[in-house]
Amino acid sequence: MKYIVLPEGRRRLPFYLATEEFAARYLSPDDDYFFMWIVEPTVIIGRHQLLDTEVNTDYCRANGIDIVRRKSGGGCVYSDLRNVMMSYITASGADTAATFAAYTAKVAALLRSLGLDAEAGSRNDVTIGPERRKVSGGAFYRIGNRSIAHGTMLYSVDTERMAAALTPSAAKLRSKGIESVRSRVTCITRYRPDLSLDEFMARARSFMTDSDVVLTPDDLGLIAQIEEPYYTDMWLHGHDPADLPLSRNASRARAILMSQSPPVAAISTASASKATSSCWAILRPTCCRSSAEPLRPRERPRRSPRLRDRSVEGDIRPHPDSFIDLLF
Prior knowledge:
The chain is α+β, with helices and mostly antiparallel strands and 328 residues long. The protein folds into 2 domains: 2-236 and 308-318, 2-Layer Sandwich (BirA Bifunctional Protein, domain 2); 241-287, no CATH class. The protein has 12 helices and 13 strands. Strands 12-1-2-6-11-10-13 form a 7-stranded mixed β-sheet, sandwiched between helices. Helix 11 (250-258) crosses helix 12. The chain is globular. The two termini are 30 Å apart.
């Protein structure tokens, strides 16, 4: 496996996501690739998640925490300067679960080489210690015939800040049987306080890879093109049903929404989302039904626009069951 040598200096998180895509699309398909990265405090939200229900956006803005949406599915994770992010790019086989399992097995073997009692979990995470607490979780998606697995490695952790930035629902907590963030996760420094962050990353690079790939200026130019859409409001907010544009039937949509009692402008965000969904339930069937057909209730629309730009073509397919988020 080859290590992708990144340019000096720390970048915002989309640069590293774009580097994964670049490797999957343009580097030799005969090799597997791996690299590690560290970012300033950032919340990374899953492709299909609703931003305002999963992230404490007010807290993030007030505390300088970046928010980025990734292309893989699943839940939110929090990363900062005490967390190592890892990326693995490989050829896709027919068995995607086996592809992801092979990656988590490598990560568990890395931690065992450092003297930690690590196991690759049944939920595609990695746990350590006698209580089998999670130290690493990841997400998986495919581009063409390549697979991208990326995830967290908790070298150290500020659970207070992590818990404040994320807002999982009470139902989600109950369904996972978790009383608190602290009861579920742990970190490397708890078991190896003598292991510095630089030493951990050097040992991981040596264990996981046997040669390097150095990015050229042309490579970085392509990465910049892939990176650009991640910063748009359309990508960050565009999967929220409440934010769906009603431009095709704007006047009719506005009339329907304002006819609600009370009008949408005067009600809460949650109620406004319901009203917006009701509006779509009225408008969208008119495109494909006969005038004699009654309107039927619809579920809230799900919006998943395929991202394309000057350098990005092809199918992006999140693996539906592969994401194991850092906390839950």
